[in-house]
Amino acid sequence: MNKSNIFLSLLLIFGVAISALAQPEISPERKQAIDSLALEKVKDLGKYISIIGNKDTPFSEANRVIDRALELFADDSQMGVSSLNRTEIEYYGVREYFQRLMALNYDRVKIDWFNIQYISDLVRQPDGRYVGVITVYQRFTGETDDGMKYVDTTKKDITVYVERKQTQIQGRVIGFWDVLLGDIRVTETKPG
Fold first, then answer.
1. The domain made up of 25-191 is a member of CATH 2.60.420
2. Would you list the domain boundaries of the chain?
3. Directed axis angle between helix 94-102 and helix 59-70, to 10°?
């Protein structure tokens, strides 16, 4: 490794360390507010998924809801999809997941989320962000007019990212903690 590569590597490591130091610790009171915000965002996502998947939702409304739902996610997040009819879990980018959800070949679709809870506390990462995991159970029901019905319940783990951000309001820089959702991993799929 030549001297310029060593210098660049050290500069990068130093920059990450400075970035992590710039991220303050979360006080217990602030952590409670962040936990509530993260749970609220997960509940919002559950509502959005229900609206997008509902065959009675007009196309334009479903697309508007997709745009709102995308705002909840960190870049490059993926969502897992499972079925009782196959063993493998497929992962899609968030927008593609929503588009596939809209296009499901059922006449009626009902999606309910329940038992939403943290399963891992927020843990500070070397880059200064905090990461946690929220578990949710999803009940999916799809029916066709000719009487075919598919029902499953899926346990999903949702990665939650919390990081310090800044915005400018009337010339003043204001710091705030932001919560974004990350990958959604399927951990279990059962009938009904």
1. no
2. 25-191
3. 160
